[in-house]
Glutamate--cysteine ligase (Metapseudomonas boanensis), 528 residues
Amino acid sequence: MSDLLSRRLALLGERANLPLLTQCLHGIERECLRVDGNGQLALTPHSPALGSALTHSQITTDYSESLLEFITPAEKDPAVTLADLEKVHRFTVDKLGDELLWSPSMPCRLPGEEDIPIARYGTSSIGRLKYVYRRGLAVRYGKTMQCIAGIHYNYSLPESLWPLLKQAEGDPQTDRDYQSARYIAMIRNFRRYSWLLMYLFGAAPALDKSFLRGRPHDLQSLDADTLYLPYATSLRMSDLGYQNNAQAGLTPCYNSLDSYLSSLRQAVSTPYPPYADIGTKQNGEWVQLNTNVIQIENEYYSSIRPKRITYTGERPIQALASRGVQYVEVRCLDINPFLPLGIDLVEARFLDAFLLFCALQDSPPMAGDECRGATDNFQTVVKEGRRPGLELLRHGQPIGLKEWATDLLDRIDHTAALLDLALDTREHAETMAVQRARVENPDLTPSAQVLAELRERGESFTEFALRQSRAHAAYFRSEPLSAEDQERFESMARESLAEQARLEAEPDVDFDTFVAAYQASILGLISN
């Protein structure tokens, strides 16, 4: 263990400071496709019984009208976060009738590209902008890739923790700049070590062959309808859906908040010739917001993002530039198809220990070679992470995955122990034992369990996923919400629909003018 990590752990372990670690915040965003009772993509519109996808704070849609997204509040205890998420699921399942929530990350057998419905958000200017942005994603990447679902884990350390570390280390930066710098350092370590998350929690080693639409690939056939790789952990996070696009050169190494924001500013303001050839309109209809490398910041597909809660009308770049980093959003987590929520407390407790380790561990700037090496390690693990004897590169030198994983778990043990001490629990130590067992025996990983289930039952990917989806629906229906929670969600649905109606009743703004003003908000930020 490094001297710096030891000093930071000792400082936070002092009696006066230990309560800070009970103040970390956790939020989850879970995406999932709606399917009909036979496992086909639901082509019905987003149900008004769930509220407005534009204005509801907890139930919305992602890319497609059929791709739901559930959002929890930020809570101090991830157990409460998961309880919040379960209530959203129970309410939604009750409103879906015969439809189901698809259990894994990789999609069901999809209809033709033209028949995958893009999410709609009504007639207000912001609602139309959200729709056109998604049309742009279809033009750029195709609709199929946008139907992949995942789990995002939002995590922050308490604001009062950072000045404590800053003072102890004699750092001359302002509190805000120090906090941002430490979150960016945390992200660098996440980039170095997140291959471990893919090994431990990857749950997407197989997919329905229709997903590839006849494109060339290096996958193997498990049966007539299922493609897989024998040692894959997460085909979702592989390059299958992201081939040959403008983002290939957009790989911020997170050496400072300014350099990260500069990369994004350049991407949202630099035309990309193939997109310019398409243009923003066809036959007078908007097909993308602009012809730049990315239309808006959210189009950057990263495994983790620095975040700041935005004010109404404010863009993410503006919020980060003006007020710094507030939390991180982990975006690489697969939905575990064996779990009704796609994630459980064992995983959440490990994520907390892992992220705290990333925050406290030394994190020197990443040179280009290390940045590329981190990407290569990640891609190696998502495609062959369970291969016996697999080696990765650490500081340019080969090391066995099992050896490196064991070394990392040894170090993460210290942050897990500190969290257990602060929270008066053994749950972090218990999850560490679960993860050590997975490192020792790859057959215990979710990705191996998925393949074992397919082989033992003789099921295709789609048959397995549909069986799990039905089982999860039965689980959620087995215990209805309390009357109080039911009314709370009903009220949120009604209020969100009323809010959308209010937005749509405002005086019309010319949409071309609205989009131009939205684009200018970034251009103005660049000129400043």
User: Anything to note?
Assistant: The chain has a mean pLDDT of 95.
